[in-house]
Design a protein that fits this description.
DUF2795, globular, mainly alpha, 6% strand, DUF2795 domain-containing protein
Length: 64
């Protein structure tokens, strides 16, 4: 499976109110039409609250 960039993930998280849980991020990405690569990247995040888009991007970048 191809690696997804944090920027690509952020395109599907518009409208998220932070802090947000992993589940909220996944749900929003699904609503925004994210593909399976983006959803898989979000599913790999730790199950915690993320305080900002930057924190989500960092966490996704750390998964690489």
């Amino acid at each position: 499976m191809a690696v997804v960039s944090p920027v690509e993930v952020q395109r599907h998280l518009s409208g998220v109110d932070y802090p947000a849980t992993r589940e909220q991020l996944i749900n929003q990405a699904q609503k925004e039409g994210a593909d399976e690569r983006v959803l898989e990247a979000l599913r790999k995040l730790l199950d915690k609250e993320y305080r900002s888009p930057a924190e989500v991007s960092k966490a996704i970048g750390d998964e690489d």
